[in-house]
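GNAT family N-acetyltransferase: structure tokens wanted.
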Amino acid sequence: MDKITIKEDFIPEINQLMDLYNNVEWYVYTDDKIKLKNAISNSLKVLTAWDNEKLVGLIRVVGDGYTIIYIQDILILKNYQGQGIGSHLLKLILERYKLIRQIVLMTDQTEKTINFYQKNGMVKASDYNCITFVK
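Answer:
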């Protein structure tokens, strides 16, 4: 993690974004390059992780920044996972928005993702007697 640098609100080149999203097999995002670039550019906050000039991770937040934020994406290149980069990016976002009452994210229900988010202080919506709806 010590060789990784974090950039705030720096939007990577589209080819760098495509490489990152494809590497973690989030292909639904890479069907439309323009839509991906616009989605990243129009986010409330974007933090990127770099190993020299190589984009190795990204977290992005959408929302109003006052009452709610939604952690839309957090992804780390596969061969950089397990080094604390994702936890560091998440910690930076949670610290920046610590006064926000509602911090939400939705993710795959796998043991790996559940363990990651619980390890980083997140709890399931059901722990608050809440339910999530999607369409």
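The CA atoms of residues 9 and 117 lie 23 Å apart. The chain is about 35% helix and 25% strand.

Cheers.
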